[in-house]
């Protein structure tokens, strides 16, 4: 996993006309980056919110999230790049929201939100690389400009937004579970967060009931046959991996966070 620096992101925001910020539909509020949005705004660049993985969340909840973001003045759309749901509409909106044509679009997002899938959907089979983008370290391997269609270009980069926030926020934003020094505490926080909004999530995923995070991790460790010495900690990391691999699913509604739907509509 390669993380772009804020210096790199600033450089490529400055060279783009429009920024697509990709979020995870299951928890859009946590997987957004206000720092990215503020940076783009300070540079006079428009940000469009792309809520990905929409196949994992009911449509009425997605509509509510669109309303929340549009209430802040941000254009928002939900798609499932994996299922190719809403992707043609995304293309149309990108052209509509671009301040001018030809337009260069930068796709940004935390790890695991499906940024690469969005890029691949936009590029499509007919896209053509035009040139590496100069002026960045290792640019011949990292940053490249693709022509998506006439007058529309995409900055393709393996770079992701630098992961920020507290331990749970970092885990939800794609920090590798294997690198966490406090995986048990983070997984316990995630379990509590999930159970607050979906009491049946662990029964669906593992056939495990109850509300105590340690008990859930101990039971998962027992069922998986993890070694006693590291069993609960390995179960903790497995829970974090299963969240990102969509085996362990839950979703957050705006009302769960005390957010009101704004005046925006999904149209």
Topology:
Layout: H1 6-14, E1 18-24, H2 34-42, E2 46-52, H3 59-71, E3 75-78, H4 87-97, E4 103-109, H5 115-123, E5 128-132, H6 139-142, E6 144-149, E7 152-156, H7 167-172, H8 183-197, H9 201-206, H10 213-224, H11 231-244
Helix pairs in contact: 8-11, 10-11
Give a quick summary of the entry.
By secondary structure, the chain is an alpha/beta fold. It has helices at 6-14, 34-42, 59-71, 87-97, 115-123, 139-142, 167-172, 183-197, 201-206, 213-224, 231-244; strands at residues 18-24, 46-52, 75-78, 103-109, 128-132, 144-149, 152-156.
CATH level 1 name of the largest domain: Alpha Beta
Helix/strand-derived category reads: alpha/beta
Number of helices: 11
Shape: elongated
What's the CATH architecture of the largest domain?
A: 3-Layer(aba) Sandwich
Q: What strand line-up does the widest sheet have?
A: 3-2-1-4-7-6-5
H-E string: HEHEHEHEHEHEEHHHHH
The whole-angstrom Rg is 19 Å
């Amino acid at each position: 996993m390669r993380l772009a620096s804020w210096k790199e992101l600033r450089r490529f925001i400055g060279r783009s006309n429009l920024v697509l910020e990709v979020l995870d539909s299951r928890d859009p509020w946590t997987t957004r980056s206000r720092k990215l949005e503020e940076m783009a705004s300070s540079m006079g660049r428009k940000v469009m919110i792309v809520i990905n993985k929409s196949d994992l969340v009911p449509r009425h909840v997605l509509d509510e999230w669109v309303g929340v973001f549009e209430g802040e003045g941000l254009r928002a759309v939900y798609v499932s790049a994996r299922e190719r749901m809403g992707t043609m509409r995304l293309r149309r909106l990108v052209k509509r929201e671009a301040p001018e044509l030809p337009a260069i679009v930068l796709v940004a997002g935390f790890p695991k939100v499906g940024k690469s899938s969005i890029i691949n959907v936009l590029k499509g089979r007919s896209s053509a690389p035009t040139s590496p983008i100069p002026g960045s370290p290792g640019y011949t391997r990292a940053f490249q400009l693709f022509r998506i269609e006439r007058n529309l270009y995409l900055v393709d980069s393996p770079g992701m937004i630098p992961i920020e926030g507290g331990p749970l926020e970092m885990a939800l934003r794609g920090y590798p579970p294997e690198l966490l020094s406090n995986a048990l505490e983070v997984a316990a926080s995630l379990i509590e967060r999930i159970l607050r909004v979906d009491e049946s999530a662990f029964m669906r995923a593992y056939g495990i009931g109850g509300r105590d995070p340690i008990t859930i991790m101990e039971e998962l460790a027992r069922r998986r046959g993890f070694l006693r010495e590291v069993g609960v900690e390995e179960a903790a990391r497995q829970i974090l991996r299963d969240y990102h691999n969509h085996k362990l699913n839950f979703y957050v509604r705006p009302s769960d966070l005390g957010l009101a739907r704004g005046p925006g509509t999904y149209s």
